[in-house]
Amino acid sequence: MFRLFSNSKHCLQMKWVLPRPHWPVNFPPMKPRNSFSTNSVYHQTQTSSLWPKDVGILALEIYFPSQYVEQTELEKYDGVEPGKYTLGLGQKQMGFCAAHEDINSLCLTVVQRLVERSNLSWESIGRLEVGTETIIDKSKAVKTVLMQLFEVSGNTDVEGIDTTNACYGGTASLFNAADWVESSSWDGRYALVVCGDIAVYATGNARPTGGAGAVAMLVGPDAPLALERGLRGTHMEHVYDFYKPDLASEYPVVDGQLSIQCYLRALDRCYATYRKKIESQWQKVGINKPCTLEDFQFMIFHTPFCKLVQKSLARLFLNDFLASSNPNTESGIYKGLKDFSNVKLEETYTSKEVEKAFQKASQELFTKKTEPSLYLSARNGNMYTPSVYGCLASLLAQYSAQQLAGSRIGVFSYGSGLAASMFSLKVSQNSAAGSPLEKLVSSLSDLKTRLDSRKRVSPERFTEIMKLREDTHHLVDHTPHGSKEDLFPGTWYLEQVDEKNRRKYARRPV
After folding, report:
1. How far is Cα 359 from Cα 374, in angstroms, rounded to an integer?
2. Angle subtended at Cα 314 by Cα 308 and Cα 315, rounded to the nearest 5 degrees
3. Is 455 assigned a ligand-binding role in the annotation?
4. CA–CA separation, 157 vs 126, rounded Å?
5. Taking every annotated instance into account, which residue ranges of this chain make up the domain Hydroxymethylglutaryl-coenzyme A synthase N-terminal (predicted)?
6. Beta 503-507 vs 419-427: how paired, if at all?
7. Is the pLDDT score of 28 beyond 90?
8. Which one is catalytic: 100, 235, 302, 473?
9. Using 50, 70 and 90 to split pLDDT, how confident is the model at 36?
């Protein structure tokens, strides 16, 4: 599978179906605008020796599959009790990819869409990082495949490479991109972060927690979503909660209960570290107060399934309660929780009593701060590395720039194995028409329309497609099964795998 070729031009082929694709008519395009420089933002480094200001997310594009299965229908087909997937997991629908989509095609699609919709030039990008756990080659990075999009521009001076650790790779890539912009290595151009995965499981209880998708984020200074400097709480440890030791299979090995416990333990540790750091910053400017959920207007999470996120918000509420020196349990938000005043955090991971009480007590906070972010996750499923950024897209799609302006968005990212971080994004105060924040929000306003335009597939057909994918994903000298007509216009797809495992891609006309 791993060979050297004397003529690298023939190592991986891609076919341009149209010389200049147009945005598909059923995806409302953003109005043409010069949102970003067509060259670079290098002038900022010439005028000041200070760090670039407000480094963060300037633009965000999302891709999800064009086909989905209803979870209620899957419950009936699988013969499980009604509500197991919908109420128990909190899922409504699940997007999935047929055999002619792979990690490369997903990332090609989302990168091209971001560049086209943002009116960027390929020369203006100086770093490109990919976070993924969907590995189709043990050596060749997805990033190298994406470089073929840069060929016409002649821009090969693009740093960055793939990062892998379960669902955390996208966050590591985002941190790397932001750190590059703030470093002495920065040459004034933008960084591009790509998160993409295809989450598939063998037939059984885990299959309904699948999904697929990709997110691309443009990173640079003066961003409408700025990473708050110095506010990252990270927890990492060695554990086998979810892993993929069989390199011939797309399916993981999962210890479900252990994975949930690891997720919640990492959440506790990250939140404690984040609070310590932000409280230290506050103390330096004369603010002496504890950090609680009230200091976040929104809180978003990596979402394996939506029900876990509701439990996670309740978990943070439990942390706040136990950290309070004298919580009022007679009235207010902690009313009725007196019996839990002396519980030990590390002993509550499997306590249904604690879980139920704090979910009930935090319901209003969940509805206000977190539930809007689950719009895409509930309808598309788990995207692995893009998951938490799909939640960010959902949040931005459901509020106006004016409603979001000045808010703090808490972000918890988790990857099994394990690696986890909590950080925060500060939303720009400027929500005026034509502002970077208004443009970012408006670019995601078609999310519902795009989801509604997908094709609904029966559980029987879904099972057939998954079986075909399982049987053929590793084949060589092979034309993948699947109709390009089932894809959204403008989507890249896998056209051919030759006898040397070289993959050829094409793009559906728009």
Report:
1. 17
2. 85
3. no
4. 7
5. 51-224
6. unpaired
7. no
8. 302
9. low
